[in-house]
Design goal:
Length: about 450
């Protein structure tokens, strides 16, 4: 009986540490009073838990300057983003990206490089990704990588890291997780997820959908991906394949999709569809051409405006079915659509109002994503952090480390967070939606 009680006590302790760490990681600084109200524990117990997290260099507690009111000054618990980092990787249709992201979502360092995975093939592409990741890690003395998260534009078997199908990459049954793990040779978890699911997660935690429990996130580049949040939780499906909305058929008389079906939604709204409608070569790697069309449409050039309006109308048609199915409070647009949405919001809403039921669309808002083309990287970091967030005791206290490791943990410099701008060159800095107040760690540049 006593052994069972001891195990239960350890589990409760881990759960309490996990709760506090998640709270300051996602929400931001918390006072002891905040934590007391949330957890129903006394201040002494809260203090003990915070000291355990401090000893692992996961948080820090500082006294807030006195406001002049009676009573003791409050202590505020803040995340430490400088000691335990996630390595976030992304495979897009036309680029690879690598980033070091600290707890609390602080971008430390990043790099995006052009690449054509369809032409290179999966093994060579992942080799390039690994090389870029190693170079990023070698650029600084990084104290501790807690995990690796990989975002891929394809259908991913989340439990195994197998990319079952990525039509826009030309990949089938590629063990991406194992290839990354073998290449990096890091003794940490490697997790792989669909880029749209991860982009939706990032926007829900800290972006345009913060505080919204029911969200549809659309990620548009060459293809169309979706991340769906229901009652505050990602919708993943039985095998992690939920959200493949780009392959919902919307036009039975339409074009053949890379997946083999006819009339998939992404054939009407992706970059290729936009270029085709503008009378330009439908090169899936012509990002500059896409930007020229969007710029011309913003200037009301007739052909470009017509192409953008056509894509907007098909976006509204497809979204109508999703609104009826999921009854979201917000639809967030990422990638290409983050730039496109402000140009066609009226058209999208016209189609939704025409086709979705009043009850399902009531109160619905449309928002461009905060993280733009880099949302999936921030979501990949959350995958990498998950084991640590679930059990902070996997990180030993500094006092329990060998002397050499202890000295390194205390003295190793970490690059300062980079200015808050997307990783992709030429993209505008995203802004926090109006009216959204976000309390953040003072060490983190507000994104």
């Amino acid at each position: 009986m006593s052994g069972s009680m001891g195990l239960n006590s350890e589990r409760v302790g881990r759960d309490n540490l996990s709760f506090i760490l998640r709270q300051v990681h996602v929400v931001g600084p918390q006072s002891r009073s905040d934590l007391n109200a949330l957890m129903g524990l006394n201040r002494t117990t809260i203090g003990s838990l915070v000291r355990q997290l401090e000893g692992r260099q996961l948080v820090e507690e500082k006294q807030v300057p006195s406001s002049g009111l009676p009573g003791r000054p409050s202590h505020v618990v803040r995340i430490r983003s400088d000691k335990h980092l996630a390595l976030a990787l992304e495979i897009q249709v036309d680029s690879l990206a690598v980033a070091l992201i600290g707890l609390g979502g602080t971008l430390i360092r990043s790099r995006r490089i052009p690449c054509n995975p369809r032409e290179s093939g999966p093994e060579e592409t992942i080799d390039q990704l690994v090389v870029a990741a190693r170079e990023l890690l070698n650029d600084a003395d990084i104290p501790h990588i807690v995990g690796v998260g990989v975002a891929v534009v394809g259908i991913v078997e989340s439990a195994t890291g197998l990319v079952r199908l990525a039509p826009n990459l030309g990949w089938t049954d590629i063990p991406a997780g194992e290839l990354v793990r073998t290449g990096l040779r890091l003794d940490v978890p490697v997790r792989v997820g669909n880029e749209a699911d991860l982009g939706g997660l990032a926007e829900h935690l800290r972006g345009s959908a913060t505080g919204v429990d029911d969200v549809i996130y659309l990620s548009g580049e060459v293809g169309l991906g979706g991340g769906i949040i229901v009652q505050g939780h990602p919708l993943v499906g039985a095998n992690g394949f939920a959200g493949e909305i780009g392959h919902v058929v919307v036009n039975p008389d339409g074009m053949k999709c890379g997946c083999g079906a006819i009339g998939c939604w992404e054939t009407e709204v992706g970059e290729v569809a936009l270029l085709r409608a503008a009378g330009m070569p439908a090169d899936p790697l012509s990002r500059r051409a896409v930007n020229r069309v969007l710029d011309a449409a913003a200037a009301d050039e007739p052909v470009a405006r017509g192409a953008v309006d056509r894509v907007g109308r098909w976006l509204g048609i497809g979204l109508s079915g999703l609104v009826n199915t999921f009854n979201p409070s917000a639809i967030v647009f990422g990638g290409l659509f983050a730039r496109l949405e402000p140009l066609v919001e009226t058209i999208i809403l016209e189609e939704i109002n025409r086709r979705a039921t009043l009850a399902a669309r009531e109160g619905l808002v449309l928002r461009p994503g905060r993280y733009g083309v880099d949302a999936a990287l921030y979501g990949a970091a959350e995958l990498a952090f998950e084991q640590l967030l679930a059990d902070p005791t996997i990180v030993p206290p500094v006092s329990a480390m060998p002397v050499a490791a202890r000295r390194k943990a205390r003295k190793s410099p970490v690059p300062a967070p980079v200015p808050d701008s997307p990783l992709g060159a030429g993209q505008e800095t995203p802004t926090v939606p109006p009216g959204r107040r976000r309390v953040r760690d003072t060490n983190e540049v507000i994104r």
